[in-house]
Amino acid sequence: MTSTPVLIAGGGPTGLMLACELRLAGVDVTVLERADGPTGESRAGGIHARTLEVLDQRGLADRFLAIGRKLAAAHFSAIWLDVSSMPTRHPYLLMILQAEIERLLAERLTELGGTVRRGAELTGLTQDADGVTAALADGTTVRAGHLVGCDGGRSTVRKLAGIAFPGTPATMTAMLADVVVDTPPEGRVFQVRTEHGAYSLLDFAPGWWRVMTNEYDRVADRDAPISFEDVRRALTRIAGTDFGIRDPRWVSRFSDAARQAEHYRAGRVLLAGDAAHIHFPAGGQGLNTGVQDAVNLGWKLALVAKGFAPAELLDTYESERHPVGARVLQNTRAQTVLGAPGEQTTALREVMTDLIAIPAANDRLAAMITALDVRYEPGPDAHELSGYRLPDLDLRVGERETSAYELLHAGFPVLLDLGHEDGERFAETARPWLDRLDHVTATGPKTWDVPLVGELDAPSAVLIRPDGHIAWAADPGEPDPAGLHAALERWLGPAE
Q: Where is the FAD-binding domain (predicted)?
């Protein structure tokens, strides 16, 4: 039997991001991936602004920007949203295929000294007060302090842990294929609705296209095989032509089934990504939500695994991320209904289009789809900034110009002292936690732009969690050492 502090089942974007977070924190981790090698399947096709910020917080965004294509828009059921005015350094969707995302994250994991154990399928698990024992298909076992299921919508970990997966069943059938197109339409064709459903043809890369079909009058057996001819027939029925599609690289089928794990934690077993929530891929939120799950969980799990924080810290992963997943299920259900054929739906879409033309409505939906508006529960009497993600501020640290997100590259929490007279009191309060905290004194802008809130006066200091969210803040002249002490103890564990 081998052993590891943390075992991750699933080597997709969520599992790889979580493994990178743990290795960055100095925690050994084993990643099990059932597939023998990279699938090469393109799958999801974009990274939204908040996920790009998360990557920027680790110094990784440039790797993705180098190979992706920027699109200054998002959409709500194919009604376009303008994201160019969002207060972020990344006011766009980065079009990049999941296969490339996985490759880049796997490369980063290798740099951090981690590996993926491929051809390894988890088939059983038992847990006790001290850890989890996972049984593999090859007859071996792995002992771990914690097990995280990042193993997709049909998660074996979730089922073995006995975690319920309630939700709504499929009401329609969608198919996808990456193909060559002999007679492509002019320009991009995105969710064109007809009396038989909807279709899209998107030129993702030179020489091949992605075709998608949505049929609202049938529900396929999710276990039935799918062929390229199924996609061709559906496209011909919906669009009136197959556009000469041929030579498929990959075909897949999905639906609008929407389910969410009743709990994200059962003892020493946790869930993230599609193992915790599935939904119709409207708005391209699934992969992004999973990566953000991983970044919320990673630093907390590292603190627990290293003995700094009690296991109860892991309960905040569920309390913070479960509502985010529930909101994604809610808005994707709405988007599915808005895409259905019929004159009534067309009328509703026209009303929605008019509403989205109102800047405040556009911004509300854009902030939701991009996840820039996520605020974790700040608690009673909290500062008005608490719970929000930290804006990527331009800062001066000594003589050096830097950004707020550069301070998070090491994955440490940061006490950012913005140069007020209360600095010595902050330093004294934080001193017992300096084995797991960076204390930085800097100067920056006088106001901070928070999505959907607007300009707020800059605080005198903030405690920034490794995931970039604000755990505590104080205004000039109100140092609040007791509040800082409580926040440090809550999020970083008791002082040594």
A: 4-332
Produce one character per residue of 170-181: b if its CB has 16 or more CB atoms within 10 Å, e if not. Answer: bbbbbbbbbbeb
Which tokens in the block code for residue 5? Answer: 């502090």
CATH number at residue 190: 3.30.70.2450
Instruction: Return the structure tokens found at 396.
Output: 């001066």
pLDDT score recorded for residue 479: 85
Residue 483: which domain range?
394-492
- The dihedrals phi and psi of 341, each to the nearest 5 degrees, come to -70, 165
Q: What is the pLDDT of residues 72-115, one digit of tens each?
A: 999 999 999 999 999 999 999 999 999 999 999 999 999 999 98
CA distances from 175 to 32, 78, 283, 379 (A): 28, 17, 16, 44
Q: Distances in Å between the alpha carbon of 336 and those of 74, 172, 175, 277?
A: 16, 9, 14, 16
pLDDT in tens, 163-221: 999 999 999 999 999 999 999 988 779 999 999 999 999 887 778 899 999 999 999 99
Distance CA 244, CA 192 (A): 18
Q: Where are the beta strands (DSSP E) in 329-398?
A: 394-397
CB 375 within 8 A of CB 468: no
121-134 b/e with 16+ CB inside 10 Å = b? ebeebebeeebbbb
Taken in order 395, 396, 397, 400, the sign of the CA dihedral is positive
d(CA 417, CA 157): 42
Q: Which residues in 431-445 are b (16+ Cβ under 10 Å) and which e?
A: eebeebbebbbbebe
Does residue 281 sit in helix, strand or coil?
Answer: coil
DSSP 465: P
Q: 459, 451, 455: which is closest to 483 by C-alpha?
A: 459
Weakest mean pLDDT among 45-54, 197-206, 453-462: 197-206
Instruction: Judge contact between 459 and 384, C-beta under 8 A.
Output: no
Domain boundary among 213, 237, 255: 255
CB 298 within 8 A of CB 25: yes
Rounded Cα distance, 239 and 231, in Å: 12
154 and 196 part of one domain: no
Confirm whether 387 is domain-assigned. no
Counting the structural domains of the chain, the total is 3
Q: How far apart are CA 435 and CA 391, in angstroms?
A: 26
Q: Going along 131-207, which residue ranges are E strands? A: 132-136, 141-149, 167-168, 173-181, 189-194, 197-205
Closest CA relative to residue 146, chosen from 170, 118, 127 = 127
